[in-house]
Specification:
The protein has 586 residues and is mostly beta strands. The protein has helices spanning 15-19, 124-133, 160-172, 197-203, 520-526, 562-571; strands spanning 6-9, 22-29, 36-40, 49-59, 63-83, 94-108, 118-121, 141-143, 149-151, 176-179, 183-186, 224-228, 231-241, 255-270, 277-279, 288-290, 297-314, 326-332, 336-342, 346-348, 352-361, 366-382, 388-401, 411-418, 430-431, 437-453, 456-471, 478-485, 492-502. The strands form seven sheets. Strands 1, 3, 5, 6, 7, 10, 12, 14 and 17 form a nine-stranded mixed β-sheet that branches. Strands 20, 22, 23, 25, 26 and 27 form a six-stranded mixed β-sheet that branches. Strand 25 (430-431) and strand 26 (437-453) form a beta hairpin. One of its GO terms (molecular function) is protein-macromolecule adaptor activity.
Length: 586
């Protein structure tokens, strides 16, 4: 589904040579569902949301790295052709609405030093503020092999200014190297590593354009290099997501919110004469020293990995919509009375909800022709100028044909309606922060009748609209879109017509099958993270030995009949025999 890794270098190395160093590179999320963070409850009900995982690297041949960084980015995208009504200039027939910006970003500067990520709220604005505070500009700059910016001067090569730059570059390229343990490591190997004052002051003016990293804030190792030997490495990462984090929207044709990880191994190739590392035999991990004036680097080795992340939200167990029955009815004077209802306003995606229709005719010669139902999806999006674009579409339509003859008495009709089970065809109800994207649903019911007047049939039509709240339940099968990444820039592409199953490791809901008809009880059951056990399956309610009656067992193996219980009760009033277990026969 995902590309294994994206390999590139600035030193002329081929991808095949870099794969000889790294045989496996992946981003793993700590979640019961693969590459999915499932949030239960609305932002008002939650505090911060934990996100954690591991960066898994299998090193085939040892490699020297400057740092291993990780970034999680959420992007909001608008792209559609708008006709007329939202345009300020009505003389034009149509216009292209196109906008793309960051709405969320979390950054881990170096997982070899710290597993804690920094959440930047506000996307591009927060990033621009951070870059401007670093005190440097990226214009007219080049990068040396150690990541330090060199300002290109228009002076000649023999000028004193250029000679000073050359000396500064040569000095900064000498670094200490820290050796990681043999056969890999699990955890953060150099937790709490800090730079010295000189390195920290020099790194504060450094900006790496190739990896788009920020200035060093937690000892990202700009004054160190790290030698990763052959073995398997699991580098943990963690952060806390804000409760109002936007959920993934991938099914709307005109707008989307997508999240992706980008992991970067910022490697270095050393001169062979400088590969002499001395490890202290008694010191802890990271207690290393180098001979001479440090390491000299000559080429960069940049290895990238991208991973698609879905952030989905489900309802809390006490949401009132689960117990809210929706009913719409009316009376046509001297003709009929009708009522249309669904048992719960909250309906999980991929389930089937029963639609009950009751018709009370007041006169003869009325017959039911057919019932048409359509699921209407309304969505609205807001751009950076606070302009709102909205539309609605019919996601699914079904027709029930009926031949009941003339209606002479009350008529009850049950019409099950199945909700689509893939997030490309339908999008869950949501109202994202600042009304960035809002999605709502309603079930439109049309009851077509025929009334005979003077030997001719005239059409009667009843329209009813039932509001529905569609939510995601991990207990029902569901599909999402197949995602592919561009190996070089990490751009997300959806493969047309292909879907992938979600929630593969979910706990099975007892007694529920795909397409089961729901009521308010089963709807609330589907919102539970895991169904509770039945009472007879519980192991926490056994009698304690000190509280048991004489001769009683904590668990009755057989249940005596009523006649046996009467005989045992009248046998003796002084000696207590085996106590009959309680039996509820209703």
């Amino acid at each position: 589904m995902f590309s294994l890794s994206s390999l590139s270098s600035s030193g002329g190395h081929s991808e095949q040579k870099e794969r000889e160093r790294i045989s496996y590179f992946d981003i793993r999320i700590n979640s019961p569902y693969k590459d999915i963070i499932l949030i239960q409850g609305s932002p008002l009900e939650l505090s911060s949301i934990p996100l954690s995982g591991n960066l898994v690297i299998s090193v085939k041949n040892e490699i020297v790295v400057k740092k291993i960084s990780l970034r999680l980015v959420g992007r909001f995208k608008l792209e559609f052709l708008q006709v007329g009504r939202y345009k300020k200039n009505s003389s034009s027939l149509a216009s292209l609405v196109k906008e793309k910006r960051k709405i969320f970003e979390c950054y881990w500067d170096n997982l070899l030093v710290s597993s804690k990520g920094d959440v930047l709220v506000g996307g591009e604005n927060a990033e621009n503020q951070h870059n401007s505070s670093s005190g440097c500009s990226t214009s007219n700059q080049d990068m040396d092999t150690s990541g330090n910016a060199i300002f290109l001067s228009k002076r000649s090569l023999s000028s004193p200014v250029f000679n000073k730059i050359i000396r500064r570059k040569t000095h900064s390229s000498h670094r200490k190297i820290l050796e990681l343990p043999e056969n890999g490591v699990t955890g953060t190997p150099f937790e709490g590593l800090r730079e010295n004052a000189r390195s920290r002051s020099s790194s504060s003016n450094t900006l790496n354009n190739n990896s788009h990293s920020y200035s060093n804030r937690d000892g990202s190792g700009s004054s160190y290099l790290f030698l990763m030997k052959r073995g398997n490495y699991e580098l943990p990462f963690n952060t806390m997501l804000p409760p109002e984090v936007c959920e993934t929207i991938e099914g709307l044709q005109s707008g989307s919110i997508l999240y992706s990880f980008e992991a970067i191994i910022d490697g270095r190739q050393l001169w062979d004469t400088d590969l002499s590392v001395h490890t202290s035999p008694h010191g802890p991990i990271g207690s290393t020293s180098t001979s001479g004036n440090g390491m000299r680097t000559k080429n960069k080795i940049i290895i990238k990995k991208f991973k698609y992340l879905r952030i989905l939200r489900t309802l809390s167990m006490d949401n009132l919509a689960m117990q809210e029955e929706i009913s719409v009815g009316n009376t046509w004077r001297d003709k009929l009375q009708y009522e249309t209802s669904i048992p719960s306003r909250a309906v999980p995606i991929g389930s089937t909800t029963p639609v009950k229709i009751k018709i009370f005719p007041f006169e003869k010669n009325i017959r039911l022709d057919r019932i048409e139902m359509a699921l209407i999806q309304y969505y609205a999006m807001k751009d950076s100028s606070a302009q709102i674009y909205d539309d609605e579409i019919a996601v699914m339509k079904i027709t029930h044909l009926a031949d009941f003859g003339p209606l002479t008495d009350k008529l009850d009709v049950d019409c099950p309606f199945t909700i689509p089970d893939n997030l490309k065809q339908i999008t869950q109800d949501c109202c994202l922060q600042d009304n960035l994207i809002r999605v709502m649903h309603k079930l439109q019911v049309r009851i077509l009748l025929q009334r005979q007047v003077d030997g001719e049939y005239k059409n009667l039509e009843i329209k009813a609209q039932l509001p529905m709240l569609l939510f995601i339940s991990p207990h029902l099968p569901m599909k999402g879109r197949l995602v592919l990444f561009d190996k070089h820039d990490g751009k997300i592409h959806f493969r047309p017509g292909e879907l992938v199953p979600l929630f593969l490791t979910t706990y099975p809901a007892q007694g529920l099958t795909p397409g089961v008809e729901l009521n308010s009880t089963t709807t609330a059951h589907l919102a539970l993270p895991q169904p509770p056990p039945n009472y007879h399956e519980s192991t926490n309610d056994h009698l304690m030995p000190a509280l048991q009656p004489l001769g009683a067992d904590s668990v009755a193996l057989t249940v005596p009949s009523y006649e046996q219980a009467q005989a045992q009760a009248s046998a003796s009033s002084y000696v207590t025999g085996s106590v009959p277990a309680y039996c509820d026969d209703d």
